[in-house]
Write the structure tokens for this entry.
Amino acid sequence: MYDLIIIDDETELLEGLSEYFPWESLGFRVAGAFGDCRTALQYCRSRRVDVVLTDIRLPFFSGFDLIRKLKNMEHVPLFCVMSAYSDFEYAKQAIQFGVQDYLVKPSSFEDIEKVFINIRRTLDANTGANIPRQAFCDNPLVNKAMEIIEKKTSSCTLNSIAEELDIHSSYLSRLFKEKIGENFQDYLVRKKMTLAAEMLVGKVGYRNNEIAAALGYQDAQNFCRIFRKHYGVSPQQYRQEHLK
């Protein structure tokens, strides 16, 4: 079971989602239900949470503000945003914040089920990315580098991380390869392609140029070339195959 928290200031909706939706059949346990982001943030700071399902417009601060704050924690959960506002401006913000998926209220049982089946698959496939880095490596510099990659996947480079850690990039490169068994660039590309695949099969329906921009690629053509090299199919073929 993965621990899920739900945040919404509509009391009836919050109660319905937290108490009556069959989360356990999808592999989730509702660990907490909150009417505002401030209380939810306090909870997440004291307990490990795997998934956050949150409204956008909430008391004290928004769902996106909550995501921004949780992104700085050691264990970063996956995020699903729900909102009555279907304006694509929210979807664009969701891309920037690395949101896993987007539900428009009112969402049907089938909509929620489909989204959380995909989230469960992501958690199952990336269990290693959701536990403390010390479990992987006994070197604090490499652990910190991996944490930076998790938080800044779209913008980080070997040089930028080396500068942040105040070490030479060639030293970080050798250390990363020695401790992780994979070149830094290969690791970063694999991380980006995993995120791209998640965005392709999510409910929002991101276009290639939007995914490319969200992951730090200059244009969609470059993104598609790297995606095909990584998965052996185009982004469109990948979407079609996984949404059947």
